[in-house]
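Support case: user asked for a sample of complex input and structure output to validate their parser. Sending the pair below.
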Amino acid sequence: MDTAAGVEARLPIRSDMDLVWVRQHVRHAAAKLGFSLVDQTKLVTAASELARNTLVHGGGGQMETAQVTTGGNGGLRLTFSDSGPGIPDLDRALSDGYTSGGGLGMGLGGARRLVHDFTVETVPGSGTSVRVTSWVSRPPRLREDV
Amino acid sequence: MPQHETGGAPGAPAHEVRDFLRRRSEQIAQRWADEPLFRTVFTVSREEAVEAGRAVVDALARVADSRRVEDPDAAGFSAVREQLARMGAARSRAGLSAAQVSSELAALLPPVDRLLVADLERERPERLRECSTALTVLMGTLRLVAMQTALSEIQALTDRQRLQLLEVATPVIKLWDGIVAVPLIGTLDSARSQVVMETLLNAVVDQHARFAILDITGVPTVDSLVAQHLMQTVDAVRLLGAECVVSGIRPAIAQTIVHLGLDLGTVKTRAGLADALGHCLDELGANIVAAAPGGADRR
């Protein structure tokens, strides 16, 4: 199955125009891997939130997309990384309504609810990397913390 | 190394190239007219292609005269910049990639270089090499100028389109007495939503609207920033004494908004534009009823 072409990419996130590019790429990649319309929309929305975080809070960075497979099930993994100031209090940043940038404060926590797997690595002073994965046909897991 | 500006027996290689270009202008133009770049762009007559080639040779000679063969900003190039841009654009329209156009420009060098070698065969080998190098550098710079011109055209086009997009995508439509609507299309970033808000608020005031419908059917992604912009617009419309209805929320977007955790509870929403219009007409007390049989219908 030759779906890697058009899925794997590394896109810069340096301006608002780049966010448009990120969204379009994620939408095309998700459609190519067979995501349903709802799942495409969720993943694109999560990518939009995370890319904006990278731009606004991380001072710009990049997104890497990769196709992943486990047990015959395909998925799409997005990694957003920046070398900004990092997130000092991750638990607080993940809680709804907390914002340091004048937004609604739903970005990080909201993005976590829109994807299947979500990990954040942040080092204060040297940057943040957010990795999210969604699977094509696995039913979403119930989360204890929601 | 002697630094004679003028006089000295063997002049600067650039000046040798200049003299060669002026002497051989006609032959070079004739040879270029057979190259794909000139042949396919100037299709009216061969004379037209030769004419264009002569203009380029003239420009090259002027640049060589100023001894700035490696400088794409040399004054001599300005005379052919526009012509090069037209040629590049014509080749792009014919489906060539930038790399292919570039290699067509590179193909202009060998015929000229062959002429130069033939002309200077009596010179010392290192002199010939110097002149040939100067010519090669000069032709390379020409290629750079052509590509630069093409790039700046594309840049200008992109800038214009960006402005157009900002302007075009925000019409306010009067649907009924007291009801205005804005169909939003594309990405709702901060700049766009500012324009939308201004035009909508002005329309509400100008038309004494009691209802404003924001239709987001054409907005592909509703994330928290878009939602924030929508809520701000709704609040601002409310301050003017009108009611705002957001319509065009597709099922996938609705599910995403719920998962994202956005609270649009304060915003009146409808699935489609027709539902939103129906709601507004209801509130206005304007009832639409089917025409009575045999009434207005005269067939």
